[in-house]
Sequence to fold (594 residues):
Amino acid sequence: MERNYATPEEYGLPDLLCCAASREVKDNEIVFAGTGLPMVAIMLAQKTHAPNLKLIFEAGTLDGRPPQIPTSVGDARCEMGASRSSGLHDAFSVAQRGYVDLGFLGGAEVDEYGNVNTTCIGNYLEPELRLTGSGGNPDINSFARRTVFIMVHEKRRFTEQVSYITSPGWKVKKWPEGTLVHRKELYGSAYRGGPSAVISTAGVFRFDDETGRIYLDTCHRGNTPEQIREMCQFDLDISRVSGETLPPTREELHFIHSVLDPEQIFIPKVKQKG
Amino acid sequence: MTGKRITLQQAAEIIKDGSSLTFSGFTIWRRPFALVFELIRQGRKGLHLIEVNGGPQTEFLVGAGCVDIWESCWVGHELYGKYGANLSRKVGNKEIIVEDYSHAEMMFRFAAAASGAPYAATQTSLGTDLHNPEYDMLGRAGLRDGERIPKHKYVFTEDPFYGAGKQVLVPAAKVDVAVMCVQQVGEEGTVRVNGQFYSDPEAARAADITIVMAEEIVPEEYLRRESDRNTIASFEVDYILECPFGAHPTGMFGRYDVDGAFLKDFYGRTRTQEGFDDFAKEWIHGQDHHSYLEKLGWPRMLNLKANTALNYSTGVKRGQ
Fold:
């Protein structure tokens, strides 16, 4: 079936991010989602190409089928149609046990190995700004087979060294020494995978299987690979760019704005001109 | 009557200066706010919060200067304030000690305490700065006495049973007092939580003293007719009190929604200490629970009231 892509006037950047994130989900997967855009993305996948995905919300609902977007993972809407409504011990045990295929997370800073910071800006012992803290970020990133991050793209956020490694990337620190090693070495039989994509407000990034280093895959409309490289503090690999990020389809836009988030909690509607 | 019933003021008095404390709920849901406000009114000092995750209750207590130590993983107001501005300010000024763990680690720490085990083994967060030995803040402050505060933040070990590699041992979260905010409690202490129970069963069992604040106290016999629907057993609960709308401004499944406008206002106004003091003067000091509810007013509370079929409010405007 031919896909009915929207024209540039019909969608905004949040729509594009949501659709790009949604396309990371495969049918029948077990997905662990955080509050916000990740939730909309996953529920969009459920309405389109992945009707059999199973949703886990950290606060304790397993395989919920909320008809409306919850405001947070603790929301009453999460448990509508759930297979089981329980608590955090269940949700994290399911993750540690290895059921989770895909995790969706956000972050404030990321480095070239996919280490993510959500704890503080500046030196941890003398922080300029304390952020929310780890939450479930490191847990999902430790246990899911792959993790997708959705992030605002700014040069200071795509950094050579994050202020604090809250969530483990492909090359992580082996304590107590703090030497950098591949995560496979550290996780032993708990190793299942790691960060698979970063969807920023500029483009979609993936990680090299061997080196664990990030590279640019697609650019969002209006960005060139060179411009995106300039927006990173590390030397971004742009040799493998496959093109422009696919726009949303009209069907996807319909689900986002008319079915999932009509109240515009997470995704504002584009104002159509005249 | 079993003599477990106390007042809000008495409940706050059980929590002493320097007590360690934990709460029911998750981020902006089912937090025992009426008691949090009462602790602020009573001027409690030196509290040690040990939380599976933080939320507005953390921010209020921290802003009011009640807290010396915060051990947890996350603090904020979800959609209504992206991070904990009061905690951030006090961390910057070194007025508070923060010990960071991951969410799963905190959960497993509570589960260990709840089962009487000294620690839990996990593999989460390997390779992160959560395990950076330089960042053991309670150790740096010389507070690791091996009594209520564990001797170590973590211990690494190799799996001695199955050869599964590196493991992180995290200490049990031993807590003096847990305060729960739930829909129903029986006269003998049986708790029925509706909806997700978050980490409530473990938190209640991990603490030495458990206080349950409920929307309503119901006949114990009523809850025992369907014991499979109950969440916490009677003997795990030491004190009970009835406090309708006790979780406001956080939400309570099936009863009322989160008051997002209130939290947004709090977040916006309390980035400075003067702002916090001003907010506390308006909403906390000189009030009691009933005058607080009167100040909120019926129209606001009725708008938050959950639809009993859907368990959430259809009146709350959530988006833009």
Q: What stands out?
A: The domain at 8-125+173-304 of chain B is CATH 3.40.1080.10 (Glutaconate Coenzyme A-transferase). Chain B touches chain A through 75 residues (CB under 8 Å).
